[in-house]
UniProtKB/TrEMBL annotation:
Name used for this protein in its record: 3-hydroxyacyl-CoA dehydrogenase
SUPFAM superfamilies: 6-phosphogluconate dehydrogenase C-terminal domain-like, NAD(P)-binding Rossmann-fold domains
Pfam families referenced in this protein's UniProt entry, alphabetically: 3HCDH, 3HCDH_N
Molecular-function annotations in GO: NAD+ binding; oxidoreductase activity, acting on the CH-OH group of donors, NAD or NADP as acceptor
Source organism superkingdom: Archaea
Keyword Ubl conjugation: no
Database matches in InterPro entries: 3-OHacyl-CoA_DH_NAD-bd, 3HC_DH_C, 6-PGluconate_DH-like_C_sf, 6PGD_dom2, NAD(P)-bd_dom_sf
Keyword Oxidoreductase: yes
Domain 3-hydroxyacyl-CoA dehydrogenase C-terminal: 183-277, 296-387
Length: 388
């Protein structure tokens, strides 16, 4: 199979690497050779790390021999799948899809790695709307196992099934959304974690370090919430926030992320965000061992969002947990955690914050109903899951 990746930045070069590791012939396109050469170095560096760890069998050189690079779309003429990973700008993405639609063969599937732009809007500029789909990878692509597969309202069942299969061939775990929603599953939940983290700090309930200490030391997440946002890029995080809220989700008034972006402190890539990263290299921030921030409070808004996703039949509880375990390396699923904490405690936190005037914390009807019916989680044998 021949795969074209358009855009060789953080996500694009990682996706190309994953495709090459799985044995596909890969073509990587970007606008300049400087950018492509930098991508090649980053791929080699990542492949060497994976090879040293025994995570891949082929040598980095053998894998890179399957990758060719180009500054022209002409290489799209014989591909089976194109994955676009250019910056999150609608006009730019539409131009890329017009080019891909013009050059690539009729059977080729055109996928976008967008995390926030509606897939249907992108599909509309092509003459193959049924073959356009969202294929959302996670940073860093060679490490994170999840791929969200997002059919637009035009995508055919055949295209969706093929993409699910291709994701499996790439050694990834696909989660397929039934209906496209802004931010998909992953970023809707991630946004809610960011919003609650932000609210706690801005309202004076806790410090950045305390929030992240609870995330890392109590919940055992690989990164704190602010730390992860620095890693993802605060501009990217703020974009997600704006897009998801701009398309109908309730907002949480909090300015810290916007202020950081305005000050051009974008996280790891600029050397400073909520923490410092000398030389623009990720280093683990050191955090206090103890924190007064309760796990139930930090997760409450994310669990409420998960309930919304289930209630609206976008995905089920298990799929949400797969997203969090394989897209964010959570040690347990979000809803497994919620069941362990107790859904009554989650709802108490939501009610408390809601009573302070934060509309987004109004308990979702599904969650409310579960608590009313005594489905309080593991302690009673049933919550989002059943326990025997
Ligand atoms: N390629 C190859 N290996 C890599 C790598 C890469 N790109 N990045 C990290 N690694 C390796 C490191 O070399 C290291 O290997 P060893 O154990 O052999 O030394 C290992 O992974 C662990 O890395 P670190 O020691 O640097 O740090 P860590 O233990 O914190 O792990 C992490 C790093 C895997 C990124 C981990 O912190 C993690 O899982 N964090 C959560 C990341 C996450 O949530 N990503 C999703 C973001 S949201 C998104 O992407 C979607 C969107 O639309 C915004």
């Amino acid at each position: 199979m021949k795969v074209l990746v358009v855009g060789s930045g953080t996500m694009g070069h990682g996706i190309a690497e994953v495709a090459a590791i799985s044995g596909f012939e890969v073509k990587l396109v970007d606008i300049s050779w400087d950018i492509l050469n930098r991508a090649k170095e980053r791929m080699m560096d990542s492949l060497r790390r994976l090879y040293e760890r025994g995570a891949i069998k082929d040598t980095p050189e053998a894998i890179m021999s399957r990758v060719t690079m180009s500054v022209s779309y002409d290489v799209a003429r014989d591909v089976d799948l194109a994955i676009e990973a250019v910056p999150e700008n609608m006009d730019l993405k539409r131009k890329v899809f017009q080019e891909l639609d013009r050059v690539s063969p009729q059977h080729a599937i055109l996928a976008t790695n967008t995390s926030s732009i509606p897939i249907s809007d992108i599909a509309e500029v092509t003459n193959r709307k049924d073959k356009v789909i969202g294929m959302h990878f996670f940073n860093p692509p060679p490490i994170m196992k999840l791929v969200e597969v997002i059919p637009s309202k035009y995508t055919s069942e055949e295209t969706t099934n093929k993409v699910v299969e291709i994701a499996r061939q790439m050694n990834k775990i696909p989660v397929r959304l039934r209906v496209e929603v802004p931010g998909f599953v992953s970023n809707r939940i991630y946004l809610r974690l960011m919003q609650e983290a932000c609210r706690e700090v801005e309202s004076g309930e806790a410090t950045i370090h305390q929030v992240d200490s609870t995330a890392r030391n109590k919940l055992k997440l690989p990164m704190g919430i602010f730390e992860l946002s620095d890693y993802v890029g605060l501009d990217v995080a703020l974009d997600l926030w704006k897009v998801i809220v701009g398309r109908g989700a309730s907002d949480v008034k909090c300015n810290m992320f916007r202020e950081k972006v305005e000050a051009k402190q974008l996280g790891v890539k600029t050397g400073k965000g909520f923490y410092e990263y000398p030389g623009g290299k990720y280093v683990k921030p050191s955090l206090p061992a103890d924190s007064p921030v309760r796990e139930s409070r930090l997760l409450s808004l994310a669990v409420n969002e998960a309930a919304w996703l289930i209630h609206n039949k976008i995905v089920n509880a298990q799929e949400i947990d797969t997203v969090m375990k394989y897209g964010f390396n959570f040690p347990q699923g979000l809803l497994e955690m919620a069941d362990n904490i107790g859904l009554d405690r989650i709802v108490e936190e939501l009610r408390d914050i809601y009573s302070k005037g934060y509309e987004a914390y109004k308990p979702n009807e599904l969650l409310d109903e579960m608590v009313r019916n005594g489905k309080l989680g593991r302690k009673v044998g049933e919550g989002f899951y059943k326990y025997s």
